[in-house]
Design brief:
Blueprint (H helix, E strand, L loop, with lengths): L8 H4 L2 H4 L5 E5 L2 H13 L3 E5 L4 E5 L5 H13 L9 E7 L3 H13 L19 H16 L3 E4 L3 E2 L2 E2 L2 E4 L6 H4 L6 E7 L2 H9 L6 E5 L3 H10 L4 E4 L19 E2 L6 H5 L18
Pfam families: Aldedh (PF00171)
Keywords: NAD, Oxidoreductase
GO molecular function, one term: oxidoreductase activity, acting on the aldehyde or oxo group of donors, NAD or NADP as acceptor
Length: 283
């Protein structure tokens, strides 16, 4: 049975969480709301499956193919105007490729067509609502005030924000540590592959990630070091399938979705035993 209730938060409050008939709370949304749900569910010993926010790193290692990395980064940053939990949030590039990557990425971003999403040629369409574009513009203005360097400044056209690219970004800055959820790209320089991995992990989130390298075996080993639920080698971060264990670590959530993992989340495992012969007990 599927029950659908359409309501505002103010109308329903926490009733869906505290209702004794709900044994598991499955939620997709912001980390802040996920923490609220987790706090209430934990107090009632209810299980949760939470798919929350992300600050997904796209890592370009010293031996990467730059042109292919740029192709993937453009798609993984700007698909759906960046409004995807798996979207690339931080682009971390080894210093050997940094200047070349920035130049090619900015040129590609400049050329992305924007406008009416009903036009099949459009890549950058409008953000979801007025509140979201105001939030994106506020992030841009605050970053500029803090001295962030802008290689491409987007412009607002209605609810459309054209691509924006910040470069030489400090990985510890508010700009880098914020889930941008908009067509705003941040590019960070790494002195080494090890530093790139360390930078990737330096976030409270851990949803998706990507590594570009010509050494796939090394990429597999480094993928295990990245603190995220999913890592894609020589691809971008926006990937999903009904048959993969989709989910994150740290502030990006709890549990895994996709078959058969989600079945485990929604199923209570129980041991039933049958004693077929008389059992002699010690007392």
């Amino acid at each position: 049975m599927l029950n659908v209730i359409l309501t505002d938060v103010d109308e329903i409050g926490d009733d869906m969480l505290t209702n004794p008939h709900s044994q598991l709370i499955s939620f997709t949304g912001s980390t802040a709301v996920g923490k609220h749900i987790g706090a209430i569910a934990g107090g009632m010993l209810k299980r949760v499956a939470l798919e929350l926010g992300g600050n997904n790193p796209f890592i370009v290692l010293a031996d990467a193919n730059v042109d292919r990395a740029v192709d993937a980064a453009i798609f993984g940053k700007f698909i759906h105007q960046g409004q995807i939990c798996m979207i690339i949030n931080r682009i971390i590039v080894h210093q050997n490729h940094y200047d070349e990557f920035v130049e090619k990425f900015v040129e590609r971003a400049k050329a992305l067509p924007y406008g009416d999403p009903r036009d099949p040629k459009t890549v950058i369409g409008p953000l979801i609502n007025e509140k979201q574009i105001e939030k994106a513009l506020a992030i841009m203005e605050e970053a500029k005030k803090e001295g962030a360097k802008m290689a491409l400044e987007g412009k607002r056209i209605g609810n459309i924000l054209t691509p924006t690219v910040f470069i030489d970004v400090d990985n510890h800055s508010k700009l880098a540590q914020t889930e941008l959820f908009s067509p705003i790209a941040t590019i960070i320089k790494a002195a080494s592959d090890d530093e790139a991995i360390a930078m990737a992990n330096d976030t409270e989130y851990g949803l998706s990630s990507a590594i570009f390298t010509e050494d796939v075996s090394e990429g597999e080993q480094l993928a295990l070091q990245v603190e995220s639920g999913m890592t894609h080698i020589n691809d971008q971060t926006v990937n999903d399938s009904p048959t993969v264990p989709f989910g994150g670590t740290k502030a990006s959530g709890i549990g895994r979705f996709g078959n058969p993992w989600v079945v485990e989340e929604f199923t209570m495992t129980k041991w039933v035993s049958i004693q077929k012969e008389y059992r002699r007990y010690p007392f």
